[in-house]
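Database export, one record per block. Field names are fixed; values are copied verbatim from the stored entry.
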Amino acid sequence: MAEPEQRTEQMIRVRQVTDYQASWTEEEPWEEGAFTFQLILDDGAEEYVLQPSVGDAKVLRKLLDKSEALTFDLDNRTLISSNLPLGG
């Protein structure tokens, strides 16, 4: 990648969420596990991993599934939903 293009890529701090992968990991037998959501940003240009609580994971999954468009602000670590259907 040319140097000016590299600088432009590094300056982009809000990216579109184009896919995600959810996973659950057992921490200790008979104990609560840990959820992770790997956000794929701009078709793989960047990735970000969220580690929500169980309650937040439920809400996050609904947000990821029901939003027509999502962006992620890397600097503020904020998931931004656009066009979320009402009543869902």
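Remark 1: The chain has one domain: 20-82.
Remark 2: The radius of gyration is 15 Å.
End of record.
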